[in-house]
């Protein structure tokens, strides 16, 4: 937590608020100098992810006093970390037995034009409760819902795992047809389910580490393929009257350099103005320069203890 605490203290100081006393105590050995007269960039906030059923660890706690203590530690701006972003995982798995992210469309409706059979359970692996608490109780401003993969039946490999690409993206040929609109509808449905439960998803992503075909939920895409889908998703959100609160985020690349390349392809395809955030991870490389965009850039990496 050291880095996070230091950054939070710096952010608090930069915002002109009093540095948090308990952080000062725990960070007694460190000195941070903040020059409030210098402005470099806007910080949207700090956050964490509730994917892979981890939110259930909070949501299913029987001891409600302990649960409140934990939520306070995460979200309270005076006594906790004061996190301001929650990243949910939009599931793709029909398998609810382990750490999979469960989908609300477990069955192929018969084709991309068939009416989808959504099975919303009102829990979303415990993520909805955490988001409701975040928004209602603590005023968390950003909910970033992100899909690691489309449901398997929408993909070239007919599997939520091991990469595979969304059928209909350039370069794909699927006997099952073009699933781009069905996937966009599916993602918009997630936003609607959350909105109906009192949570506005502010950012919506359709990829996670698209250059890494993981043995768990994963979906491959290059920049051209992402650029092809962004207008479809954006138009779908617009038609559903969701763009007042929800914008498209892309692409959660494995590392900064990967995301620089994906963004370049998105820019040359003219899709950049449809983005609300450019998102990246830091596994194959951290921020090594400026991301060439005016769109806010969000970065996520491995938690360090
Ligand atoms: C979500 O957004 C809608 C549309 O802007 C708004 O009417 C509603 O109050 C918002 N809900 C919350 C909980 O902020
Ligand atoms: C979106 O809003 C327009 C204008 O208020 C309305 O006519 C239309 O029915 C809405 N569409 C949906 C899908 O809610």
From TrEMBL:
It comes from the Eukaryota. Residues 1-19 form the signal peptide. Transmembrane segments: none annotated. It holds the Pfam family Glyco_hydr_30_2. SUPFAM superfamilies: (Trans)glycosidases. Residues 31-248 form the Endo-beta-1,6-galactanase-like domain. Belongs to the glycosyl hydrolase 30 family. Keywords: Hydrolase, Signal. This is Endo-beta-1,6-galactanase-like domain-containing protein. It comes from Phialemonium thermophilum.
């Amino acid at each position: 937590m050291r880095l996070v605490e230091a950054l939070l203290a710096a952010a608090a100081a930069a915002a002109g608020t009093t540095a948090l006393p308990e952080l000062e105590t725990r960070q007694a050995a460190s000195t941070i100098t903040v020059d409030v007269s210098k402005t470099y960039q806007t910080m949207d906030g700090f956050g964490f992810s509730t994917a892979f059923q981890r939110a259930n660890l909070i949501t299913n706690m029987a001891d409600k006093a302990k649960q409140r203590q934990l939520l306070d530690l995460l979200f309270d701006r005076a006594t906790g970390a004061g996190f301001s972003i929650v990243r949910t995982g939009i599931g793709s798995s029909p398998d609810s037995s382990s750490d999979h992210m469960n989908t609300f469309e477990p069955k192929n409706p018969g084709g991309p034009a068939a009416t989808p059979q959504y099975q919303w359970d009102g829990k979303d692996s415990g993520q909805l409760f955490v988001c409701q608490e975040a928004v209602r109780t603590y005023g968390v401003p950003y909910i970033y819902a992100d899909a690691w993969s489309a449901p398997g039946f929408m993909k070239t490999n007919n599997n939520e795992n091991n990469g595979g690409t969304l059928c209909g993206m350039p370069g794909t040929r699927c006997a099952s047809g073009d699933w781009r609109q069905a996937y966009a509808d599916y993602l918009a449905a997630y936003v609607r389910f959350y909105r109906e439960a009192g949570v506005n998803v502010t950012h919506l992503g359709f990829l996670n580490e698209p250059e890494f075909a993981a043995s768990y939920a994963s979906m491959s895409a290059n920049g051209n393929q992402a650029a092809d889908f962004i207008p479809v998703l954006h138009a779908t959100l617009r038609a559903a009257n969701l763009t007042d609160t929800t914008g498209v985020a892309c692409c959660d690349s494995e590392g900064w350099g990967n995301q620089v390349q994906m963004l370049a392809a998105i820019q040359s395809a003219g899709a950049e103005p449809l983005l609300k955030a450019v998102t990246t991870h830091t596994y194959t490389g951290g921020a090594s320069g400026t991301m060439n965009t005016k769109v806010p850039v969000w970065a996520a990496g491995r938690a360090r203890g």
